[in-house]
Amino acid sequence: MGRAPCCEKMGLKKGPWSPEEDEILINFINLYGHGNWRALPKQAGLLRCGKSCRLRWTNYLRPDIKRGHFTREEEDTIVNLHETLGNRWSAIAARLPGRTDNEIKNVWHTHLKKRLNPNHDSNDNKRQSKTKVDSSKDLKKEQVQQQAMKMPVSPSESRSSEVSTVTISQNNAKVCTTKVETHEDHVSEIDEIFWSEVLSADNSNMADDFQAVGSDPPLPKLEAVNGYGSNLYDTDTNMDFWYNLFARVGDFSELPEI
DNA sequence: AACGCGTCCAACCGCTTCAGT
DNA sequence: CACTGAAGCGGTTGGACGCGT
After folding, report:
1. When you count CB atoms within 10 A of the terminal residue's CB, does the N or C end of chain A come out lower?
2. In this structure, is the CB of residue A117 within 7 Å of any atom belonging to strand C?
3. Nearest Cα residue to A105 out of A55, A144, A146
């Protein structure tokens, strides 16, 4: 199992990403998906390693990442899940739609651990004053993400990359990807009732994306599903969407526990 | 104003797991 | 089954920032 040479050895850039690099990555992924992270930076013209690109995308640029501070409910959920799952951050993230494992890990180490251990000074005053900075950061993130959402989706995207872009959140993404890939050829067999539900969805843009492929019955543009991931995954209703989809496409039993 | 300190979080490192052959 | 390459994951780090003195 050969270890990939580190970025420095390869003469690749490390450290914080510039807005230009973000834009290149967003544009490239929206056009071609991210079927092969290792090859992506070369193809996109980025002086980064694939790992760095993947991390940047999954932790920051992905359109379905929820922005802003964790709510009390989310924090409680993390605490509860941590009791049962331990430091399995990706597993916890899978149950908190729109949140990344990295983000949850950070919140745990910075806030929640202290909350649970009163011996640590929570230093709330400092945190509150810092929210101003955080808010501006959030705003910047939102702007980048809005850009990502606006990017046109290429109809010429390969099937394999389409599959790989069904990135909802960590473990769930894995399951979703597998299901779509495995049953890809059966998607067209999904009954018309389901598609009429999809196409009559409140989000008309979403309906457009489902129609965009122009097949009959219409196949979803998987990258469109990715783009609307947060919308679809944020609520119980949207969870129903995914369950509905995969229940009809394939084996429901393999869906993640929520 | 300048400095030191604490906090936060994006990004990296290195190990593990997965998937293909 | 063994091997290999790629992706995923959790731990850690470093720099930016705000606050207190």
Report:
1. N
2. no
3. A55
The CATH number of A72-150, from 2.30.30.60, 1.10.10.60, 3.40.190.290, 1.10.3720.10, is: 1.10.10.60
A83-106 b/e (C-beta count within 10 Å ≥ 16 → b): eeeeeebbbbbbbbbbbbbebbbe
CB A59 within 8 A of CB A103: yes
CB A242 within 8 A of CB A233: yes
Cα(A170)–Cα(A91) distance, rounded to whole angstroms? 8
pLDDT digits (tens, 9 = 90+) for A169-211: 333 333 233 233 333 333 333 333 333 333 333 333 333 333 3
Nearest to A70 by CA among A126, A136, A138: A138
For nucleic chain B, give residues with Cβ below 7 angstroms from it: A 1, 3, 6-8, 13-17, 48, 51-52, 55-56, 59-60, 102-103, 105-107, 109-111, 121, 123, 126-127, 130, 134, 137, 141, 174, 178
Taking the CA of residue A222 and the C1' sugar atom of nucleotide C17, their distance in angstroms comes to 39
Distance A15 CA to C14 C1' (A): 10
pTM comes to 0.58
pLDDT tens digits, one per residue of A73-83 = 888 888 888 88
